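Chain A, query sequence.
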Amino acid sequence: MRVKIAAFYKFVGIESPTILKSDLHEFCAQRDVRGTILIAHEGINATVSGPNGTIDALLELLRADARFADLPVKLSSAAAHPFQRFKIKIKPEIVTFGVPDLRPSDATGHLVDPTDWNALISDPDVIVVDTRNDYEVEIGTFEGARNPRTRTFGEFRDYVAADLASDPHRKIAMFCTGGIRCEKASAYLLSKGFENVYQLSGGILNYLEHVAPEESLWRGECFVFDERVALEHGVRQGHHRLCAGCGRPIRRGSEDNVESFCADCNGADATERD
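Chain A, predicted structure.
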């Protein structure tokens, strides 16, 4: 049975996260829904899978709430659930950045449609920044993009201070997997006095869905946080798996069903490494 996968987020004020959690948990627990939903006072962030009708009903339930009436959703499909179970949690932030008073719902960078993205990042006066973590960038990124070499999203603030803060007037174009990290990153840049901040609307996944491979400036595959590991153009499953030792993405080999390790792990048991 094929399943539908829905990825969505929205920065919007949620006064009572516990009430929303209760309503969504009651709906999902009674149906074949898997994946993760995060709720905070700043909004909602989720990637879930289930039968077509079930996911459609979940989205209908959410959009009946005025706060989520215009909820943008990225849909894809898979041969089976890419998640083992269902989780719903209340968190301090729906994507951890470490600036509690930041409000992406108030102001973020200019959204750039995927069809206009190539022209923007081809401009030599534009600094193109990948806001994702180092292990994600390693398996795919846009041509000419800068890698901040972060291990966690919170470290992006250090990158801004060290590499961008000296010239807040430059045009900066940022991207991430689905858009959520760019929302916070662009809001942060605006709060620091940056004037020309742009972000890829819907993130890399939206670009891979709407831009033809022959026109693409994307190189490699896009890491995703589920059992598909990485996606390629057309939002189809790519050619990576997770290292059996450290969990980093590595290229699939010919022995597809055999556990494999990255070069750093080299087959060592996880308990033997620092």
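The chain is about 25% helix and 25% strand. Helices lie at 17-29, 52-63, 114-121, 134-137, 156-164, 180-191, 203-210.
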